[in-house]
Amino acid sequence: MAAVETxxxxxxxxxxxxxxxxxxxxxxxxxxxxxxxxxxxxxDRVKVIALYAAGRTFVAGADIREFGQPPKQPMLPEVCxxxxxxxxxIVCVLHGTTLGGGLEIALSCxxxxxxxxxxxxxxEVNLGLLPGAGGTQRLPRLVEGMxxxxxxxxxxxxxxxxxLEAGLLDDLQDGDPAxxxxxxxxxxxxxxxTPRVTAHLExxxxxxxxDSFRAKTRGEVAERALKAAxxxxxxxxxxxxxERRLFTEAMASNAHKGLKHAFFAERAVSHIPESNAEARxxxxxxxxxxxxMGSGIATALLLAGMPVTLIEMEEDRVAxxxxxxxxxxxxxxxxxxxxxxxxxxxxxxxxxxxxxSALADADVVIEAVFxxxxxxxxxxxxxDHICKQGAILATNTSYLDVNExxxxxxxxxxxxxxxxxxxxxxxxxxxxxxxxxxxPETVATSFKLAKKLRKVAVRSGVCDGFIGNRILAHxxxxxxxxxxxxxxxxxxxxxxxxxxxxxxxxxxSDLAGQDIGWVTRKRQAAFRxxxxxxxxxxxxxCEQGWFGRKSGKGFYIYDGKNRSVNPTVAEFAQAEREAxxxxxxxxxxxxxxxxxxxxxxxxxxxxxxxxxxxxxxDVDAVFLFGxxxxxxxxxxxxxxxxxxxxxxxxRIEQYxxxxxxxxxxxxxxxxxxxxxxxFNDLNKEG
Length: 686
Ligand code: T1G
Fold this sequence. Notes:
By secondary structure, this protein is an alpha/beta fold. It has 29 helices and 19 strands.
């Protein structure tokens, strides 16, 4: 099947793009389009060309997989120039998600007809780029300045209706793209649709538009996109040159490397060894435990359209759970995800009860009770007798041994860990923890559930803390060590927020509750090696009952929306230094980030080494979608590749001089450096 096919219908030439899954404008599509236009220009029978695409969408952009590869001619800018210069008018029919290079192709045609449900956008900034095939020059010639600048700098798509109103579309139809294309071609023949050459239209960005955008556009990526759009006040050929110059600059940027990696991380993690196993039916869900996590999980299942039965021990807890879920759905109404009718219909699918036998027919049951092995073993013992054969029995534990939990049932093959992140109906990450006896069908069904919940599911093996929390437990220590050695915690938070984290580690633990970390530290105290440094500052804070936001005080003091540093923390730090004979020293922000990331990368490498994560990119996805890792870095192991693995090793070896127990170079990291390889090479080996 050719990527581009032509068929004549009278004087209308239908040109069909067919390059599944999303008709990306890869080399075959580009060559196909150029050849089609060239041939049809010479064919006297043809008076108009109607361009459309097969499948679920018109062109969803340039082929991202070609980025960073040697360029294959013709490149998309040239294809767009050929479409724009065509001797025969080209009407383009758009459906699905017409994005990036796909919209740029459409902008280069002489008329555009949309099909209802269409979304149009220039999402290049989400990849650290800018429209590179004329989008920043031709869009402002078709729509008014503010609309053009918004689409170019925000990357957000607009609806077909908004595009019609803005003049981006000439018409909006319903139906099959091929039929709409033929009808549109005939409309041009009948002069019911007037072709316009975009290049001949005036740029509509005003100085005021630019001034207002300059004032509010922040960040290297968006500022560069705005700069390109500004060049639209030049003659088109000069504007296109400036756009190309800035596009090439963006292609070489770290932000692009990180954001492209993040795009593929979200998709690569669904490629698992169990992909071909048969997933079971998933109509109804059950949740045990109506606390914050249980209610959040129930809300996620309800929002995915599943009837849910939630179990709690006492009636007042049942009422609390229903109330929490109702509030969660109210929040979804506020965020515009649901309207009032949909909220009520969703809530009607919820059953809250103390009677566990109500779970007998559930296709999947997710346990979210107190993090105690005894309690979990008791619950799974009961589920084993209540639930129908073939039901997925899942635990939402965030670190307990899934194999031990499965071991109390007669069907460990149906037991799996489904580790949600709070708030469970909002956070996109789901760690799917596969036990030693978990059946491939159970894994495949869990990934199917994740897709239904619009989660990014990452497969994890069983270990303390799985992928995310195991790595967190390690790098978190580096912040306590830096604090004891002299870095004020607020400096550590600020340095990491500048690096790109939405919130620094001390602020995060204040938000989550200092008592959670305290319980973990006490649990680990029993088997903490003597060689391991231990910092007591956080224990001192907890001993005061200062658990963070929920108690109005932690490392920070919270007064309504205001937050200030808790000065007593510095006193606790100084007292511990004096007790341990430590002289405080200063840290630069850069050193704080280097140490934090070296600690994160080293434990992440060990998680890959131990095969807890399938690939390095799985670790990156966990941190991008569950731990607020700055997207423009692409994740901790992509950061390591961008920074240079040898540099990371050299830093760990330097830090090991002061603490050889904590700072150890993982074998995998050393092997990659010696082999001149990167974590991405491992991803490719898959
Ligand atoms: N190039 C290559 N592969 C792509 C692709 C693209 N543009 N878009 C999607 N895929 C693959 C994806 O990796 C997955 O593969 C499969 O298609 C299905 O995607 C010059 C420079 C279109 C809204 O940024 O936002 O044009 O995992 O799972 O949820 O100015 O894909 O199955 O192997 O996401 O239905 C601009 C990116 C490019 C759009 C569909 N375009 N794509 O979502 O399916 S830059 C974009 C999306 C550009 C020019 C510039 C979404 C989607 P696999 P999926 P989906």
